[in-house]
Amino acid sequence: MVETGSSPLPLLFRRRSSGEMKNLASVSSSLLPAFGTVVDDGYLHLKKYVIVPYDRRYRWWQTFLVALVLYSAWASTFELAFKRASKGTLLVIDLVVDVFFAIDIVLTFFVAYLDKSTYLLVDDHKKIALRYVTRSWFFMDVASTLPFQFIYRIFTGKWHTGEVFGFLNLLRLWRLWRVSELFKRLEKDTRFSYVWTRLLKLICVTVFAVHSAGCFYYWLAAHHKTPDNTWIGKAVEDFKHRSVWLGYTYSIYWSIVTLTTVGYGDLHAVNIGEKIFNMIYMLFNIGLTAYIIGNMTNLIVHVAVRTFAMRDTINELLRYASKNRLPEGLREQMLAHMQLKFKTAELQQEEVLQDLPKAIRSSIAQHLFHNTVEKTYLFNGVSEDLVSQLVSEMKAEYFPPKVEIILQNEIPTDFYILVSGAVDVLTYKNGTEQFLSKLGSADMAGEIGVIFNIPQPFTVRTKRLSQVIRISHHHFKQMVQPQSEDGKIIISNFMQYLKDLKEDMLQEIPFLTELLADETIQPIAQNEVQQDRETLDSTDANPEGTPDTSNPSLSASTIRVIIHGHHPTKGTMPSDRLGKLIYLPASIEDLFSLAEKKFGKRGSTILMADGSEVEELNALRENDHLFIV
Predict the structure, then answer these.
(1) Distance (Å, rounded) from C-alpha 199 to C-alpha 210?
(2) pLDDT tens string 245-280
(3) What b-and-e string marks burial along 260-289, b requiring 16 or more CB atoms within 10 Å of the CB?
(4) Is residue 188 within 8 Å of residue 37, measured between CB atoms?
(5) Which has the closest alpha carbon to 467: 373, 347, 356, 334?
(6) What's the CA gap between 49 and 62, in Å, rounded?
(7) pTM score of the predicted model
(8) 623 class by beta-carbon count within 10 Å (0-12 exposed, 13-18 middle, 19+ buried)
(9) Most buried residue among 117, 277, 401, 563 by CB atoms closer than 10 A?
(10) H/E element, 83
């Protein structure tokens, strides 16, 4: 057997293989290359004189045999009905065809096969031969290849005129399994239209049924004791001595008229044998017609199934919107998004790739989005490893024009990177919508809310069809925390971005102005690694938009807290609720001094949100809210 490689790459097939594929031996028989695929077998270390079953040359040989099978299927029944045609030219052609199939029998003893238990190619000559000989295929292949009439001629010196050799020639119909296998491969090959392949298969089945029925019906008439008392004898005088092709034309005409249930009446059963055959043929036609109609229906439904699904989904949305009296603008957004989902179904990464292994999905994501993520300001200068990890966890989405990607004041769960298209950054003041900025390819949205763990400060709306990739703050935190150096770079990039924000955007986040203006609150990349990790630790926000207080304790010099200049039960204004973000000083006196600078009055007591008094700063944790009264 072929030795197995350690890499899963052999399971990946391409239209033209390359040297990257070191081993194809572990491929399941159901995953063999599609029809016409070129596979480089230079790296398959098989024994000498062993043929790989998906070798290009062997595939073409099999395809050539299919063409010979089509001839055999036609000639077998034709020669049975029209005995005169079985001699002369057709006899020579039959012998040549039999020679090719005899060669194929010999080649089969050298073709490796796939072991069903190990899914490895078996290249042992004895095992290959034993497997072929012990199966019925070998005996049927031999029986369908032997030229019995020619062998009889060699041993007796004369041609046998009996019907036995005509029926023995029907054994060649065994070769039709090759045609069935060809259609199976074509149906799985994406280079060929599935609809046209199925239609071609239906046509072949119908033509073969018509041809075979016509030939058998003519054979009944030709072997009746009274030739004139037959279906064709009534229409053609002395038909047995007339042209072979005249008789064949009448036979095919009758077969088609009967199959289509037209029944003109010009050719009809006369004797008992013909009537019995007509009944059997018409019963067979019922099944054949059902098979054809069923397949045609499946093809039509296959083409229209997505349209039906889209119509049903849109109708459900309209009923929902009507029942809940949704505004017209919201209805239009719902319909636009649903229509875009169906129009771009082939582009939706999750739906298309969900059945692929994670390694393949990651490779595709790297190919599509790696360069875009590298261009974003937040990840400028970070390590290649971190970028690759981030890209692997990102999800791609499409949004139609004039649809909100992020809503102002919603809980920050994800941030987005724009791959293509354009979006507007908006804010609402006193019920009025105000435009702040426009974002394009490689720009980010939602990262401020995620990193500061505050409600999203802006609304982000698409201007045209846009593709974005998003990552959740949970995955972002998990990947950045172990990367201390990258964490410093990200913090530095983020702080620089905040400094470059427009004034009108800074005004929407009151504590940002204080954070950037205060000299004691600057990014401290030179501090301990733990500070960077905790700064990036964006945990889930609660419904009020205040940060969670479940982070582990840090030293006082690295803890960030939010201070308020009022009693915890008295603050009502939005600015009071947000407070001032500071780094915790070393002593309570320093905290009182800093609070006096922020609020213009000096306090004497430090309270928590629940009213408890703070006596030691060491008891505080990251993101605690302190009320100076």
Answers:
(1) 16
(2) 999 999 999 999 999 888 788 888 889 998 999 999
(3) eeeeeeebbbbbeebeebbeebeeebeebe
(4) no
(5) 347
(6) 18
(7) 0.50
(8) buried
(9) 563
(10) none
